[in-house]
Amino acid sequence: MFSSILRAVGLSPKEDRREFERYAVTTPLEVTVDGVAHKCIVENVSVGGLRLEPPVDAAPGSELTILHPASGLHLKGKLIGNDENGARVSFDSAEAGAVISVWVRMMHEQESTPAHAV
User: Fold this and answer.
1) For the stretch 39-52, what's the b/e string if a residue is b when 16 or more beta carbons lie within 10 angstroms of its beta carbon?
2) Which Pfam families match (predicted)?
3) What percent of the chain is helix, strand and coil (3-state, nearest 5)?
């Protein structure tokens, strides 16, 4: 919360300024580029995109499909870039933000639900 306030008033270091808040999420995804499926793990997610591990074998700008098998989440995105640790993906549509918001809440609720309550 405090980092959001600092960003809003322009007091955070430039490299920390982000358009959207990131949420730590660790869950498997399947990313398909040019008909080739890649198994990945989400490192973090925001309304604008996500970061995956490992890097995706595709060129920046490549269109891709993101599938979260456990929830059925299915989105279109674009590969922004890769580095030695992972890939950055942006979402293609404004609706993706709403879908991701619901997904992050759903994942958080599952993680915070006591085992005996399931």
Assistant:
1) ebebbebbbbbbbb
2) PilZ (PF07238)
3) 25, 35, 35
Residue 1 lies in a domain: no
Token digits of residue 39: 């198994």
Distance separating alpha carbons of residues 15 and 67, to the nearest angstrom: 30
- Whole-prediction pTM value? 0.70
- Distance in angstroms between the alpha carbons of the first and the last residue of the chain: 30
CA gap 49, 27 in Å, rounded: 15
Count of domains for the chain: 1
Q: What is the pLDDT of residues 48-81, one digit of tens each?
A: 888 999 999 999 999 999 998 888 888 899 999 9
pLDDT in tens, 23-40: 788 888 999 999 999 999
